[in-house]
UniProtKB/TrEMBL annotation:
This is Nodulation protein NodH. One of its GO terms (molecular function) is sulfotransferase activity. It comes from Mesorhizobium kowhaii. Residues 10-202 form the Sulfotransferase domain. Gene3D superfamilies: P-loop containing nucleotide triphosphate hydrolases. InterPro entries: Nod_factor_sulfotransferase (IPR052796), P-loop_NTPase (IPR027417), Sulfotransferase_dom (IPR000863).
């Protein structure tokens, strides 16, 4: 079915990679009338049919996300998707098109960006991007070594992206969700999200299947942590090395 009345209220989840957006989306999708359809610009996302959708214009892609989405047997009142910062690189005009979508609500997920980069490096090294509650014997993620150049580039990309989002959407249409709050106080965090979206409050079921892959602190998982902390000690990124 492609015609729905009334049109659901649109939202988007924006973030750097490895910031807990899969977990947030899983919690959102517990709601009977809220649907978030995964990564719109990821050709491998199984929520969408076929890679050929990425051949469409930016506007056509957004129309598919918000007007012709796969409904998954829900009476949808709030419809969303998520986009990670690197996915805008291949479609440089997509961000501007997104800002023009009427009445769009934006959820910006943030995390200590060094943890985000550490997690990204671990996933690329191990090939394990998600951990589920059924993965009883999953191996512990590998310790990684991060270069100063990669850290500087990633930190700057995150700062620039967060600033761009905050400057492009009004404060009433933007909610910042912190990864640590989502992890440790999911019910309170989701309460703010429901209020922001205008969806009825929902008590969480505690049935989440996604699990945190890495529980060790940064100084135990980044092999050259002390050298990196020393390099960034007197600059704007020193805050990422507080453990």
């Amino acid at each position: 079915m492609t015609h729905r009345t009334p049109t659901p209220q649109p939202f988007v989840i924006l973030a750097m990679p490895r910031t807990g957006t899969h977990y947030l989306e899983e919690l959102l999708n517990e709601h009977p009338t809220v649907l978030s359809n995964g990564e719109l610009l990821n050709e491998y996302d199984t929520n969408w049919f076929g890679k050929d959708r990425l051949l469409r214009t930016d506007r056509e892609l957004l129309e598919q996300a918000y007007l012709r989405y796969p409904a998954q047997d829900k009476n949808v009142t709030h419809i969303g998707c998520k986009i990670n910062e690197p996915q805008f690189h291949d479609r440089p005009a997509f961000f501007a098109e997104l800002t023009r979508w009427p009445a769009l609500k934006v959820i910006l997920v943030t995390r200590n960006i060094l943890e985000s980069l550490r997690s990204f490096a671990q996933a690329r090294q191990s090939g394990q991007w998600l951990k589920f509650s059924s993965d009883k014997d999953a191996a512990r993620p590998p310790r990684v070594r991060l270069s100063i150049a990669d850290c500087e580039a990633y930190f700057k990309a995150a700062d620039d992206f967060h600033a761009r989002v905050e400057h492009s959407f009004t404060s009433t249409n933007l909610l910042v969700v912190e990864y640590e709050s989502l992890l440790h106080e999911p019910a309170a965090c989701l309460g703010k999200v429901w209020d922001f979206l205008g969806a009825p409050a929902l008590e969480l079921s505690d049935r989440a299947t996604l699990q945190r892959q890495e529980t060790r602190p940064l100084d135990q998982t980044v092999q050259n942590f002390d050298a990196l902390r020393l390099h960034f000690a007197d600059g704007p990124y020193a805050r990422f090395f507080d453990v």
